[in-house]
Amino acid sequence: MDAEMRVLDLLGLQGLIDTLRARGYAVVGPTVRDGAIVHAPIATIDDLPRGWGDDQDAAHYRLRRRADDALFGFAAGAQSPKPVLFPAEELIWRGRRTGEEFTVNEDGAERAGDEGPYALLGVRSCDLHALAIHDVVLLGRDHVDVRYAARRAGAFVVAVTCTAPGGTCFCASMGTGPRPDAGYDLALTELLDDGPHRFLVEVGTPRGEEVLAEVPTTSAPAHDVRAADDAVAWSVAHMGRTLDTDGIKEVLYANAESPRWDDVASLCLACTNCTLVCPTCFCTSVEDVADLTGDVAERRRVWDSCFSEDFSYIHGGAIRPEIRSRYRQWITHKLASWQDQFGMSGCVGCGRCITWCPAAIDITAEAAALRWTPQPAAGRS
Amino acid sequence: MSMVEHLHRAGTSPETLADPMRPRRYRIAHTRQDTRDTFTLELEPTEGPPLAYRPGQFTMLDAFGVGEVPISISGDPARGGPLEQTIRDVGVVTHALITAPVGTLLGVRGPFGTSWDVSLGAGGDVVFIAGGIGFPPLRPALLELISERDRYGRVVLLYGVRTPEDIIFGDELRSWAHDHGIVVGVTVDNGQHAWRGKVGLVTQLIPRAGFDPRNTTAFVCGPEVMMRFSAAALADRGVRPSRIRMSMERNMKCGVGLCGHCQLRELFVCVDGPVLTYDRLAPLLSSREL
């Protein structure tokens, strides 16, 4: 949207939160809990991680005090907004059995939007792209996840330019950041210089413009627009990692029998951490829970992971009993087959899978290694 | 495309979206024991019309409070009668399904997936290759073919099972052979005393089946290893890989491409399959554990 850029100070940011809450949004944003940046309800700017930064590397995440009062001075938190719109566990339906009959008397879809609508505050560009990916996966095909649709439909997005990329970040490689380019109602870039603590605001939708009109802002001077551009340039130059996406699909498909999978498997614990923190992983399972009589039962949708052996189980055994084939499935899906399925990469370069892997397995390093590993002849022995 | 655009393309708003995870209720009208471990359920909808489906499609069948499993439809698509589903007793859910008393309500979602499209074989020879519990999903395709038998040339059904006692639809096999000119070859892994038929792999029946490979369409369903060897044997004889159609089995939790369990590299077997052509599958089946 072509609208004039505005500037918001700290009081203005509080005003934005107040306005969203007054409009009925459940505002969810970053906060510090248990030594990590996580998502939680936000009522005031004091709930935000003021003055907190982070250090991230493979298998390493530590919060650290910054020298300034930045509210968004950290990289990707422990979770993307994925659990807000696509919870780790939710009701599909609940039913009751009487003799041979059963009735479905509660449908989770009817309640899915009840907690919201949500306003997601502080969404990074990587996670914004992940949201757009979920929109395609869960809403853009023949069958739709109606519970996600209910939560997503009303969600208001306040994106934030990432000005403190971490050691495991590579959104610049994936073309997904660090500056939000689409999919937001409002986008902020935090400006920390000799002037007052302030945010450059870009408007993405008429709804965003409407909300912003209720908040005290000033017209953005040219030097603030330039300062935001400089912050983005700095951020691009400080990505901790890179991933060469050129021909990556062909690289992965050609390496189905690479000896490299054995090397990864010797480290991988199949703990599923990477899939849990990944903002695009969407695999789920269905669980049935009945009471002791078996007459009241509910079906739940729960996150699942291609790293668990059960994931591929059919009568006779798992399709992927070996960890090597599970890791191959995950990285091949993320970087290659996702392209065939959805016309886009399944990786947004947020780096969480690297940070939160207890064995320090690095998707960027594995992709690079596969690119340079000699390919054995394809085919079964 | 924005989320709103996606919903508009689907022609709907979040409030009116149909939930593919919500089952319809069907009543068990009849349970027939086919073999010692295989049963066919006949299901009648409690409300609404009978399920319209195409041969090769499957449903997600739900035993209340126990769970849900993908089961192929084994009935006659042209006959509007009850929904027929043939189930082997291999796990908790399938056991609950086959032991449920007549009159019990089951949840049914579907039908899902691609179909055999048996009419692609019209004007030429047709080979059906079935292994074990892979036979029931082929039955609707055979029945569709039989309803227009004169559109097809030589029709061969090759069927491999563990033992003679495991033969499903045995009476029908005889009538298809006698009344409809279908060449039926049955082979068993283990033939005891009374068995006078063939013993061995179903692929061993292919060379003498007498079809014209250059003008043959094949429909294959059974354990993956059997399908892989059968398809390779057919291709070796000159059947075009694009005319070898196979029904794949993978773990399925949703049936609609959302849960991710059934992925075979870029394929979602539940929506891109289960029926897929060998030219598409061959590269994917050549890697172990893909």
Oligomer: heterodimer
Q: Radius of gyration of chain B from the CA trace?
A: 19 Å
User: Which of globular, elongated, flat, extended, rod-shaped describes the shape of chain A?
Assistant: globular
Q: What fraction strand of chain A?
A: 15-25%
Taking the alpha carbons of the first and last residues of chain A, their distance comes to 57 Å
Quick one: how many beta strands of chain B?
15
**Largest sheet, spatial ordering of strands of chain B:** 10-9-8-7-11-12-15
Number of separate domains of chain A: 2
How far apart lie the N and C ends of chain B?
A: 31 Å
Query: Into which percentage range does the β-strand content of chain B fall?
Result: 25-35%
Percentage of residues in helical conformation of chain B: 10-25%
State the name of the first-level CATH class of the largest domain in chain B: Alpha Beta
Tally of discrete structural domains of chain B: 2
Global shape of chain B? globular
CATH H level of the largest domain in chain B: which superfamily? Nucleotide-binding domain of ferredoxin-NADP reductase (FNR) module
What does the main sheet of chain B amount to? Answer: 7 strands, mixed
Helix content of chain A: 25-40%
Organism (chain A): Pengzhenrongella frigida
Protein name (chain A): Sulfite reductase subunit A
GO molecular function (chain A): iron-sulfur cluster binding; metal ion binding
Pfam family, one (chain A): Fer4_22
Describe the secondary structure blueprint for this structure:
The complex is a heterodimer of chains A (about 375) and B (about 290).
Chain A (H helix, E strand, L loop, with lengths): L5 E4 H13 L3 E8 L2 E6 L10 E6 L2 E6 L16 H4 L3 E10 L2 E7 H4 L6 E6 L1 H15 L6 H8 L2 E5 L10 H4 L11 E6 L6 E6 L2 H8 L4 E2 L2 H16 L10 H7 L5 H8 L5 H5 L6 E7 L5 E8 L9 E2 L2 E2 L4 H20 L9 H4 L7 H10 L9
Helix pairs in contact in A: 9-12, 10-12
Chain B lengths: L2 H7 L14 E10 L4 E8 L12 E6 L3 E6 L10 E6 L3 H8 L5 E8 L12 E7 L3 H13 L7 E7 L8 H11 L1 E7 L9 E2 L16 E6 L2 H13 L7 E4 L15 E2 L2 E2 H4 L2 E3 H8 L5
Parallel strand pairs in B: 7-8, 7-11, 8-9, 9-10, 11-12
Antiparallel strand pairs in B: 1-2, 1-6, 2-5, 3-4, 3-6, 12-15, 13-14
Organism (chain A): Pengzhenrongella frigida
Protein name (chain A): Sulfite reductase subunit A
GO molecular function (chain A): iron-sulfur cluster binding; metal ion binding
